[in-house]
């Protein structure tokens, strides 16, 4: 029967029933949709608040002693936080001045940050938290930068780390799986450095560096860029092309070729193309569609776009 033909009392009764059904549905939906808060997250939120305050002091401390003291407390608090149940799945959304990256395959999480010295240099700190159901190990990262004589050709471990603050993780599932880390290294008052690092796990322990970069007849274990402190350099990953793309750096004149503080982007692009588990150098890329905005840096790691699929399937 057409509702418009119902007599007034019946129409009123129908409306009342309809409104009652809507009320019941809304009430039930509200009950079902109410999020379930993980009890351990409450404790983690308190710890995160402490980390946020300490991390801000690491950045804003007027003296090196203030920054180092804040960093020491931050490191201890972070250790407590990581050892709290369910910390691996906690997002750490409020921690803005420290990079917190989770590998796309959820195998590990890496924390990295830096402390500025009075002379414009940086000291780097970090931790790798593995994702395991039982006895999940945590590896501290000890900055060994100044003692590594040939960083482009040296394999290191977490105790001899070529420190950096990372902003991107690229998993590569080749015959021997590994991860590419893109990082900002800072340097001094004259130059800035960026790094393409390789992280793998040997016997469940982290190892940095691997001879997978091929170019101009040379095999390199990690890639390091150094350029003037006043410049901004693009270094990012183009997932669809399996390509790491970066600004070509050059001096304003050939006579300054041995002076990295004069180097800067020259409006051309180079890159490393992934093929069969290795990265091959290629020059003069056609990157006319590259946006003007440069890749994100460590001060805002939450903007980095993770992806769920590896860039190369296991052989």
Folded structure, characterized:
A hairpin with a 7-residue loop joins strand 3 and strand 4 (138-142). The chain is built from three helices and 16 strands. Strands 5, 6, 7, 8, 9 and 12 form a six-stranded antiparallel sheet that branches. Strands 11-10-16-15-14-13 form a six-stranded mixed sheet, with no helix packed on it. Residues 1-36 and 292-309 have low confidence and may be disordered. The protein is α+β, with helices and mostly antiparallel strands.
Q: Strand portion, in percent?
A: 25-35%
- Main sheet: strands, sense, barrel: 6 strands, antiparallel
Give the structural class. alpha+beta
Radius of gyration: 26 Å
Low-confidence stretches: 1-36, 292-309
**What would the principal axes of the Cα set say about the shape?**
globular
Beta strands, count: 16
Task: Give the averaged pLDDT, no decimals.
Answer: 84
Q: What is the terminal-to-terminal distance?
A: 66 Å
Fraction in helix: 10-25%
Number of H/I helices: 3
Could you give the order of the helices and strands?
Answer: HHHEEEEEEEEEEEEEEEE
Quick recap:
The protein has 315 residues and is α+β, with helices and mostly antiparallel strands. It has helices at residues 8-33, 39-60, 64-82; strands at residues 99-102, 108-116, 122-130, 138-142, 156-157, 165-172, 178-187, 191-202, 205-208, 213-215, 218-220, 223-228, 235-238, 243-250, 264-275, 278-282. It has a domain at 96-303.
């Amino acid at each position: 029967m057409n509702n418009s033909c119902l007599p007034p009392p019946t129409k009123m009764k129908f409306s009342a029933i309809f409104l009652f059904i809507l009320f019941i549905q809304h009430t039930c939906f509200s009950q079902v949709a109410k999020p379930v808060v993980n009890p351990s997250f409450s404790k983690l939120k308190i710890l995160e608040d402490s980390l946020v305050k300490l991390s801000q002091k690491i950045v804003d401390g007027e003296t090196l002693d203030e920054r180092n003291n804040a960093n020491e407390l931050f490191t201890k608090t972070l250790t407590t936080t990581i050892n709290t149940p369910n910390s691996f799945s906690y997002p750490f959304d409020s921690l803005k001045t420290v990079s917190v990256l989770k590998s796309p395959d959820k195998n590990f999480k890496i924390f990295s940050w830096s402390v500025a010295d009075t002379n414009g240099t940086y000291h780097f700190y970090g931790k790798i938290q593995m994702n395991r159901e039982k006895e999940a190990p945590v590896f501290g990262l000890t900055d060994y930068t100044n003692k590594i004589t040939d960083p482009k050709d040296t394999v290191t471990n977490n105790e001899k780390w070529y420190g950096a603050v990372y902003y991107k993780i690229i998993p590569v599932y080749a015959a021997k799986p590994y991860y590419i880390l893109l990082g900002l290294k800072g340097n001094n008052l004259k130059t800035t450095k960026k790094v393409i690092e390789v992280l793998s796990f040997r016997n469940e322990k982290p190892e940095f560096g691997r001879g997978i970069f091929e170019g101009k007849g040379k095999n390199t274990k990690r890639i390091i860029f150094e350029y003037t402190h006043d410049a901004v350099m693009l270094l990012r990953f183009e997932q669809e092309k399996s390509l790491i793309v970066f600004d070509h750096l050059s001096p304003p004149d050939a006579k300054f070729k041995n002076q990295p503080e004069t180097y800067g982007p020259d409006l051309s692009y180079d890159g490393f193309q992934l093929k069969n588990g290795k990265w091959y150098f290629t020059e003069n890329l056609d990157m006319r569609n590259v946006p003007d905005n440069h890749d994100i840096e460590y001060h805002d790691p939450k903007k980095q776009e993770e992806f769920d699929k590896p860039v190369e399937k296991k052989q």
